[in-house]
Amino acid sequence: MSLRHALLGLLADRPASGYDLLKLFDTSLAHVWPATQSQLYGELNRLAEAGLVDVSAEGPRRRKEYTVTEEGLKELRAWLVAPTQQQPQRSELLLKVFFFDLATDEQARAVLAEREQRATAYHERLMELRTALEDEEGPFTSNGLIALEYGLRRAEMEWEWARWAAEQLG
Amino acid sequence: MSLRHALLGLLADRPASGYDLLKLFDTSLAHVWPATQSQLYGELNRLAEAGLVDVSAEGPRRRKEYTVTEEGLKELRAWLVAPTQQQPQRSELLLKVFFFDLATDEQARAVLAEREQRATAYHERLMELRTALEDEEGPFTSNGLIALEYGLRRAEMEWEWARWAAEQLG
DNA sequence: CTTCGACATGTCAGTGATGGAATATCCACC
DNA sequence: GGTGGATATTCCATCACTGACATGTCGAAG
Fold first, then answer.
1. Could you say which of A8, A77, B68, B142 has the lowest number of CB atoms within 10 Å?
2. How confident is the model at residue B159 (pLDDT cuts 50, 70, 90)?
3. Which nucleotide is nearest to B35 (CA to C1')?
4. Are residues B84 and A93, on separate chains, in Cβ contact within 8 Å?
């Protein structure tokens, strides 16, 4: 349900087309709220129907540029201050942990090692992203860095936990 | 897709009915892979159709008791050692952080404070669950504690981050 | 002048989760 | 003997996400 607010948020900075927004998603919001092209175009049309955005310009190649309406901004601000519902956390990894008794110790260790690796790799990617972000000056940079820090801390937590868990198995 | 494996995993410990499994989900797996009643019964029927479980007994009130088949166990073990796909992380909280410029500092702080509170409350709940688990001896206790530790660490990470983030706003 | 890559939008089938309603049985208690 | 609560299963409408397919335009490079 928040894809809608992600779009409104990006459009609040500046008008953009679906294509623009798709790229913005891939860069800025990729780690926070990934979305596919089909979702995005569909939601844009629904947003326009609901009067939260307007088509402010049409360009070549059927390009439609969207702008948030007053109503859209209102909706966005209301969402920002509404209580954040935390979505139920499903974790395939932890599910496997639950059933570790069905595997050998070696197999269990492999599962944990895989996660540790992934977490460190992800951490590195985020560190690169951070240095990249620090150079350029975008509208979402400083807030983006706060969100990014969450990812970094989470990755650290994950590999520390994975190591600890592997010890527990012994 | 892993609901299937969650069910197989629980049934691998002992045969059970849908109703039993629902209760097991609510207690043991609630924090790891929540599932609703409609999902669960549906998946059980599909599992039986696929030959991964058998109806091993029928009791009063149309109760059907399911048991994993050899094939089901095979599937479960294959899943355990297969690479764990990490599902894309959508976070409504981080999305809000991205758009903090649209809110007042006060509002942003409130969002962060709410999360900090939730994280500490969740941490407390998990601590209680841990002491409860440590007393009783279940089949999944020791692995459950490893999974639970993940939740604890994550909650700690979250409130530390929320505090840090609030400082950044100043 | 053609072709290739980037730009740009739309649609659809399949899958899985949500939430609620409908149905029925058994048991304990009054 | 009737009622309420726990046991137990099934179905359905709705919604969101995925991944793929379909369609078409423009600009630059050769």
1. B142
2. very high
3. C17
4. yes
Cα distance between residue A36 and residue A20, in whole Å? 13
CATH class of the domain whose range is A3-81: mainly alpha
Q: What is the tens place of the pLDDT at every residue in A8-25?
A: 999 999 999 999 999 999
**Over 90: is that where the pLDDT of B90 sits?**
yes
Mark residue B77 as left, alpha or beta (left: phi above 0; alpha: psi -120 to 50; beta: remaining).
alpha
- Token digits for B139? 């089949």
Q: Flag if B102 and A28 touch (Cβ within 8 Å).
A: no
Strand order in the sheet with A53-58: A16-17, A64-68, A53-58
For residue A117, give Cα distances in angstroms to A94, A103, A124, A131, A162: 16, 20, 11, 22, 9
d(CA B141, CA B155): 21
In this complex, the residue of A84, A140, A160 whose CB is nearest that of residue B96 is A84
Amino acid at B112: L
Q: Give the pLDDT confidence score for residue B52 in this predicted structure.
A: 96
The proportion of chain B whose per-residue pLDDT surpasses 70, expressed as a percent, equals 100
Q: Name the minimum distance, in Å, from the CA of B100 to any CA of chain A.
A: 7
Work out if B43's Cβ lies within 7 angstroms of strand D.
no
3-state DSSP of A75-122:
HHHHHHHCCCCCCCCCCHHHHHHHCHHHCCHHHHHHHHHHHHHHHHHH
Pairing of the two strands B53-58 and B16-17: unpaired
- How deeply is A36 buried, as exposed, middle or buried, from its count of CB atoms within 10 A (0-12, 13-18, 19+)? exposed
What is the C-alpha end-to-end distance of chain A, expressed in Å?
44
Share of residues in chain B with pLDDT > 90 (%): 89
Kindly state the average pLDDT of the residues B52-64: 94
Say whether pLDDT at B88 is over 90. Answer: no
Are B98 and A150 an interchain contact pair (Cβ–Cβ within 8 Å)? no
Cβ contacts of A103 on chain B, cutoff 8 Å: 77, 80-81
